[in-house]
Write a structure and sequence with these properties.
The chain has 538 residues and is an alpha/beta fold. The chain has helices at 4-19, 39-46, 51-69, 74-77, 81-89, 93-103, 110-130, 150-180, 185-204, 239-261, 286-299, 349-352, 355-358, 394-402, 422-437, 484-488, 491-515; strands at 210-222, 270-272, 303-310, 317-325, 328-335, 375-376, 382-387, 407-412, 441-445, 451-453, 470-480. Helix content is 44%, strand content 14%. The chain is globular and about 80 Å long.
Length: 538
């Protein structure tokens, strides 16, 4: 019998166990911990006395995970982070029920083998569901914790971050079997060995994009924090706030102009400014357009800036990547498509608009772009721009690569979260996107962390920390060819859904067979007066 004290203890343990995997992500970046981080939570779930209790502990553990991985949002969302976490925590209930059903008791044989496949698939299902932009997007995917592990990056080139997540959860599942179920140690050891063999085969034999021999010299301009005023903040209200925002934008522009001027004579092919690096529409501010054109002419390279302003040719505020050459804007423009919930728009504003009075939610919704854009540089190299947390979406960088982008560029600003784990977490995503697509990736921010990665996902040159105010030049090796992930997309997700669907169907069939009444015994044949059996129909 489960006492009230035991229930409270298990509740607290579920929240704490769900939060543990956050240590595998930056800033702690204990990547190796990811392979055992789920073990305490899974041990708790397998011992749940009822399915209802397992569902509760899966829900609370999921909420604990969301709060831990996104705790740096507290200054912006305040208490609103808790209901968001409780909502997203519901996505872990199916996984929790799978853990209890397949790992509970003394699983061995087929049940242990099924657990090693279906438990990772159930986890991936929760990741796929919360990766929908309307639920916040794919931030904190378990596979993303392996961004600095070369073998994991090779796996990402085959099946994206999704394949890495499957492998990490499979290892956790095997550890649970090794610890708790001695009779299942053979399939557990076989699973770990299989993961190792798979990683080795991918690393040694599968093809990867080849170096084309070309090099693109890219300069990242990071102005750093301004002394006063908001840093690309959303939702500021009132005349005084608007004036402060405009003043900060002007000082930021001046600082970036000065830093870009230090690149004269250093032979660069592209200069990248961060998100919200220009605070006024260039068509409405020809003076800024002329200054950028003159700067491009002096440096000898086009500038990729990011305009965060109300457009003069259509209603609404857009965040747009704009390419500027010696003659002004080239006409290449990308409007951000996937906006940050609450930061750039408020979902169901008529219902949740009160969030603007609690935290730093957007006072006015930004407008969305219609389609991805690939831009051409003077030397013929094509670049694919992304804005802010769009770098978290594997499908966006994959689509740009399929459109012909040779270099992926993300313009970002994590100024609001300067002294948290957010800048390092955000910068690490570039390694995954580079490995998945086989294309170099530039992550340029206003205030750090700025980072550059090669086609394999390996870091190129030093990162620019959150305290840096500088312009740094990186040599990006270009690659040709493609990866399996670019060709086939998120096939691990499809495989996981198919495996779970097959399991549900199989369970349904077995349930029907168990519930079907036994056939009635046939009546003994009637006998004639002569003793012979009478045949039916005679």
């Amino acid at each position: 019998m489960v006492t009230k004290r035991t229930r409270w203890w298990r509740t607290a343990a579920a929240v704490a166990a769900g939060a543990l995997p956050c240590l595998a992500f930056p800033a702690p970046a204990l990547w190796w911990f990811a392979y055992v981080a789920l073990v305490p939570w899974m041990l708790l779930l397998r011992s749940a006395p009822t399915g209802r209790r397992a569902a509760l502990e899966g829900w609370l553990g999921g909420a604990g995970f969301i709060v831990a991985v996104h705790h740096w949002l507290l200054p912006s969302l305040h208490v609103f982070l808790l209901p968001v976490a409780l909502l997203l925590g519901l996505l872990w209930i199916p996984w929790a029920l799978l853990v209890r059903e397949l790992l509970g008791g003394t699983p061995h044989g087929w049940r242990a083998a099924a657990a090693l496949v279906l438990v990772p698939a159930g986890w991936l299902l929760s990741e796929l569901a919360r990766s929908w932009q309307g639920l916040g997007g794919p931030w904190g995917l378990l596979g993303a914790s392996q961004w600095q592990v070369p073998p994991a990056l090779r796996l990402a080139s085959v099946g994206g971050v999704w394949l890495v997540s499957l492998l990490v959860v499979a290892v956790n599942c095997a550890v649970v079997l090794l610890v708790a179920v001695p009779r299942a140690r053979v399939p557990a050891v076989a699973a770990v060995a299989g993961c190792a063999v798979l990683t080795g085969v991918v690393g040694l034999w599968l093809p990867r994009p080849e170096a084309s021999g070309g090099v693109l010299r890219v300069a990242v301009v990071q102005p750093g924090l301004m002394a006063d005023g908001p840093q690309g903040a959303s939702g500021a209200g009132g005349t005084a706030a608007a004036a402060a925002t405009a003043d900060a934008a002007q000082r930021r522009f001046d600082a970036q102009e000065r830093l870009t001027g230090t690149l004269v004579g250093r032979r660069v092919d592209l200069v990248v400014w961060g998100e919200s690096s220009v605070g006024a529409d260039l068509a409405a501010r020809p003076d800024l357009s002329r200054r950028l054109a003159a700067l491009s002419a002096r440096v000898g390279a086009p500038l990729l800036v990011n305009v965060d302003a109300r457009r003069s040719d259509r209603p609404g505020i857009y965040k747009s990547s704009v390419l500027v050459g010696p003659r002004g804007p080239t006409g290449d423009r990308y409007d951000k498509m996937r906006l940050v919930p609450f930061g750039e728009y408020v979902p169901a504003r008529s219902v949740l608009g009160w969030a603007t009075s609690v935290g730093k939610a957007a006072g006015e919704d930004r407008m969305r772009g219609a389609a991805p854009v690939v831009m051409g540089l003077p030397d013929g190299t094509r670049i694919g721009p992304l804005v802010c947390f769009e770098s978290a979406f594997p499908d966006m960088s994959r689509e740009l690569t399929r459109m012909g982008a040779a270099v992926l560029v993300a313009q970002s600003s994590t100024s609001t979260f300067q002294h948290s784990w957010a800048p390092a977490q955000h910068a690490s995503l570039g390694a995954l996107r580079a490995a998945e697509t086989g294309r170099p990736f530039v992550h340029a921010t206003l205030t750090g962390v700025s980072a550059v990665y090669g086609p394999s996902g390996a870091r190129i040159g030093p990162d620019l920390s959150t305290s840096a105010s500088t312009a740094a030049v990186y040599e990006l090796p270009l690659a040709r060819g493609t990866t399996l992930f670019v060709r086939f997309g998120n096939w691990p997700g499809g495989a996981a859904v198919a495996a779970l669907a097959a399991y549900v169907v199989l369970r349904g069939v077995r349930a029907v067979r168990r519930g079907r009444p036994a056939p009635e015994p046939s009546a003994p044949p009637a006998r004639t007066v002569r003793g012979s059996a009478a045949r039916p129909g005679r």
